[in-house]
Amino acid sequence: MTDDGRLLTIDGRPALRFERRYRQPIDRVWRAVTAPEEMARWFPSNVEGDRAVGAALVFDDSAQRAADEEAGEPTRADGEIFRGHVVVHDPPNVFSFTWGGELLRIELHPDGDGTRLVFTHLLSHRSIAHRTGAGWHACLGELDRMLGVDVPVEDDWMSVFEEFVDRLGPELAHVDGDALVWERYSHVGPEEVRAALDRPEDWGGAPHADEAISWEVVPDEHGSIIRLRHEEIGDDAELAASWHALLVQLDMYLAAGQLLPVDGARFREAYASLLASRR
């Protein structure tokens, strides 16, 4: 059984859910998803702290980021280390904890001679589902291999990312009079977001920088809400799709410090329908 990232709504929040089945008994899988030395092999950081309800956790990802950078793969940009705390610790069935401003829940269920894993991530914002989903796809692939599942190592991370963009990508802009407005979320703070907006050449936005656009950056407890308003899209679905792609690029630039080009053509049909609907 494999469920590679479904987008759900839980308690009014967007969430991603992954499911796996392992042939090992539940106690073995429990160690893999809770023991610090085993989590370090598949989780995107070391998870430091006691495994007890209320215990503080520190997510030190310096070793993982160094390995990703050496391999030329996207990784989190420099910034504060994430912190959280244990919400549920119920061996060998549930381990749940906060991770920055988000909630992770790992559930294990006996399944014949093996174990069914249900991994749920409550997100800060719908717009990060594609990036987060692609990241967990890679991490859970490492867990699969650690537990003896024969899954291939994917060398082309960009293809994986594009698959999740197509399946879970951020919502289209909404129409506001003659304008289009996009809303996105980033885990980095407002100052860093504004600095990136002042350097559009870093994330591919320079050719469009002189258009009739305005940005709003709103502080959030664990990051920033970013809104883009474009006053002169008109009926130009290609331009709207280009901006949609640029915002995906901006998101990855803020998250990983890298420019990953995204083809706006994949969004053109959706924007043609959106723009036609307002006539």
TrEMBL record:
Gene3D superfamilies: 3.30.530.20. It holds the Pfam family AHSA1. Residues 25-147 form the Activator of Hsp90 ATPase homologue 1/2-like C-terminal domain. Belongs to the AHA1 family. This is Activator of Hsp90 ATPase homologue 1/2-like C-terminal domain-containing protein. It comes from Actinomarinicola tropica.
